[in-house]
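REQUEST ID: PR-0412
SUBMITTED BY: lab tech R.K.
PRIORITY: routine
TASK: structure prediction, single protein chain
INPUT:
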Amino acid sequence: MFRSTDNGDNWTQVNTGLTEHRVIAFTATPNGDIFAGTYVGGGVFRSGDNGDTWIEKNNGLVATDVRAIATKFDGTIFAGTYGIGAFRSSDNGQSWEQINNGLFAHFVRSLAISPDGHIFAGADFVDGLGGVFPSTDNGDSWTDVSQGVIEFDVRALASIPMVTFLQEPTLEALSAAFGDPQTMARAGRT
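STATUS: complete
OUTPUT:
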């Protein structure tokens, strides 16, 4: 792990406490803590000192291959795992709960949170399941808006007011959906 404090001109290694060095996802909470999701079994690590030191935070996180991590404005943290689905922490990473009601694709590779608080999970297609799943209730339930429309791995998601973007690797295309989560499915038809 490396950190720059001068807009990328210089970099300093900051790995103290980070036992898995293959970091694949980052997020920051409103209180300034940084969370890192690690690839192939390290789970989630938290830093409260700008990355100087890292502490493993996997209590309740039964899958430790964390491919995506995102934070809502209220500090709720979401982790997307590869093989077990999504998890949520409401206590700054102290504990995690699995939140897969309606999230049938468990190979989550991307997460995005819209300005209105909706959460979008993007999943790889494995065993016929994958695509985009929005949640409008803080991850308590998810809706599959991909059925028959989006049939590719969703590797990246981003959201700005009224628009959610998704990237899929097969055609190297970027699609956009406008408005409500149901529009996400219609955007995949182009």
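NOTES: The radius of gyration is 16 Å.
REVIEWED BY: pending
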